[in-house]
Amino acid sequence: MMIASGIAGLDAVLNGGFLTGRTTVVSGGTGSGKTVLASQFLSAGAVEHGEPGLMILFEESPATVAAHFPGGGWPPKSEPHAAVHFIDGRLPEDTVQSGSFDLGGLIAVAGAAAKMHGVKRLAIDGIDAIFALVEDVHIRRRELARLLDWLADSGLTAILTVKRGAADEPPIYFDLAEFAADGVIALRSTMIGELQRRTLHVVKMRGAGFVSGGHPYVIGERGVQVLHAPTRTRWLTQPLDSRLSTGVERLDLMLQGGYGVGTTTLVSGTPGSAKTTLSAAFLQAGLQAGERCLYVGFDEPAEQVVSDAHSVGIRLDDALSAGLLRAESFTAGSLIAEEHYLAIQGLIESHNPSRLVIDPASALDKAGGRDIGDVIRERLVVLMKSRGITALFTSATDGSIPTSDLARTRFATVCDAWIQVGFSSQDGERNRTLAVLKARGTGHSNQIRELLLSENGIDLADVYTSPGNVLSGTARMQREQEIAAQREIELERTSDDLESLDREREKLSRSLEAMQRRLTELADDRAGLVERVKSSGQTRARDTGEIRSLRHGDPNPANGA
């Protein structure tokens, strides 16, 4: 059976939490957060689960620990079923050891306090300080085994914090604790430049699985927070074929409708190539649709970004004032990358955005180096996908070959779409260009467009190619004028041809009318001829009858039968 640790991210590393009724040793150097972690463990049990806790302190006073506990403090003692109780185990400075070292008194006091308050969770902080008074290693090991046996019989879920020696050496005066305890967690700290990076390692956890390796953690207002890297990406249920507008009409066409819902897009380019402007257009499109949006910037005040967007007709001020848009900026090199991650995660949890921009995500390299920056960027992608957030990351490249920096990183491969912006230089001009390098799961344009910025907004124009060159700027406009002139000439020629055809049609029409009149005349002539033939035939028939009558002696053939 598992018991929640109360430390953000640690339960995921421990596959659910600590094993109930087991003892875990937490070791680390000075300032690694051992006491803070133990305090959170007890406070979470008391506040969230109604499990009273007991803390035995050997180095700090209870008042000091309670006063400096981050995030909300201890439960009040007026709530007996949700409280943390203390035993001050510190020895007076003038203590003189007499007789054999024995933890029997401490165990008896702790057992009585646990029974009195119904304690379920126990933390013994800095117990190695008292073991340092014992020179005989055999006595230390005997009393350590005695303490661990009592903890196992008590059924308490316990944490023992001890100091770790330099160079990752085992605890000096608690050397067998890590072997005898059920679980061991090591807190380690390294310096990267001027920044301190902390990692948590689960060395062992008997009878339970855990995620191995080093897990970055930070100590802040919310205490210890562990960054757990998911072993697989889990998608929020959503229509993956839906599209969101990019805020630029022709870019929507290039992407066959826009960015996919819940996908991540990388916009890379050199400084000044309009990465932030494209980000602002993306946010504006979301705000116009009533979506909640979040902008996270580095090294440039968010207020300046909002103000600069006015130059291209993008207005974000009203949405910022109304709370639909939240914009925050950080100094990249002031914190380790993991701390930036947790700050962004906190903003997401509090604002719940549908669209998010991190500008530039490449600034995380300043917070511990490229390798750590890549890890945090990948975790941000996983975070966005798991929450169904449509995200846009910008990345600054260093110049001559815009994709060179990104080709050496993993970040470009985990993004769903990749847009490259840059400059085309020719004839004394530098003009912005845009190309879609990839769009996973959908068709997209393979053509380069010229990126145009004006007070009316952002537009994309077709560029033209001539042998060995891509035409943009003035050259593009000249080419457009040439094409327009050619079309005008072709239009005039077509008009002339149409007029000639019209004249020919009129001529043929007149000829047709003449022929129709002639046909009518011939028809009339034929009809008259037919009538004459009929009349002539009737006359012949009458004459023939008269001749026959005379031959038969009819004197009056006209009166014949």
CATH superfamily membership of the largest domain, which one? P-loop containing nucleotide triphosphate hydrolases
- Annotation field: number of helices: 16
Fold-level CATH name of the largest domain: Rossmann fold
Whole-number mean pLDDT: 82
What is the helical fraction, as a range of percent? 25-40%
Shape: elongated
Uncertain regions spanning at least 5 consecutive residues: none
The order of strands across the largest sheet is 5-4-6-7-3-8-9-10-11
What is the radius of gyration?
45 Å
Tell me the span between the first and last alpha carbons. 139 Å
Structural class: alpha/beta
Report the CATH C-level class of the largest domain. Answer: Alpha Beta
Give the strand tally: 24
* Beta-strand residue fraction: 15-25%
The count of domains is: 3
Name of the CATH architecture of the largest domain? 3-Layer(aba) Sandwich
- Main beta sheet, described? 9 strands, mixed
Can you walk me through this structure?
The chain has 561 residues and is of the alpha/beta class. It has 3 domains: 217 residues, P-loop containing nucleotide triphosphate hydrolases (Rossmann fold, 3-Layer(aba) Sandwich); 220 residues, 3-Layer(aba) Sandwich (Rossmann fold), CATH 3.40.50.300; 53 residues. The chain contains 16 helices and 24 strands. The mean pLDDT is 82.
Keyphrases for this structure?
nine-stranded mixed β-sheet; alpha/beta; Rossmann fold; about 550 residues
Summarize the structure.
With 561 residues, this protein is of the alpha/beta class. It is 39% helix and 24% strand.
